[in-house]
């Protein structure tokens, strides 16, 4: 009986402590003093107009319980935005404008009881927004299997370039399978879209920002160049002096054009690990081709990792039609592109996310600059592997073009 009464008393005590704790927590989340009086207004407001936005500087009111300043404004009909700045700052930036028109901004001082002051009204005249800067500089040209586009984004705003095509010729604009938006905040945006047929069609391009402002539309007719996967049946190993020394006779160059995209050991190219200078290997394609893109499938190393040891990180692709037989990388060769493999996760070597693994397994793919010259001989030159040295490992090499 005593035990029962003791347990009941403990239970009641526990409930009382919980209630007290809850009340105490509620008290912490509320201001100590409720102030229903509106704070003073901000003053001495100055405006600096920027691209698609404006920076406002002001003098704060002297209220001791001032919590923040907020700006309320419209970026378009029925599209209201609100920006807040704490009482530790005397500046805020109003953003999201898709034009250069005059916009009214109302500034409120707000105290800790969420009571706002009377508004102070200022007018901003934002400069040319990022969507229009990008649109004015947007250039689109036909390339293999699609088109390449480039534009300037000097404010490094988050932009989306939306491609559309009139597949029927009747003004019905759509995004076909594989035609994706281009998302970037780079100062210069470059992208190549593939999967388009080699026929003349009308295309349209529009630039959008994260506030759903849209630029004017660029309309153009494009005829993508025919692109195909270059057959490997005519490829062969073209051994020249200065080419890399193989680790074993069977880890040789033909392993990278045998059609096995995810091979295991030893069905790979693997060169000697003590190489002290950049290493290269040479392919004979059997006839000259104009190249559009290529893909390298790395070797899956012990531990089920790709971004390690001899797999390519920084490398070059060279082309020739009449290579010097002494093996020199001289004027008989043309540098076609320099490439750097970037892990999607950005993590250090030895750490690989699911995205890193999927990217490697599908193959590291790179576009060539728009080329007009065809080449029969190709050299892959390793500048640095994931170990930080020069030896090469590779599972498969693939080319597209015509």
Automatic annotation (TrEMBL):
According to the entry, every stretch annotated as the F5/8 type C domain falls at 218-399
Leader sequence range is 1-20
The protein in question is named Galactose-binding like protein
Which keywords has UniProt assigned to this entry? Signal
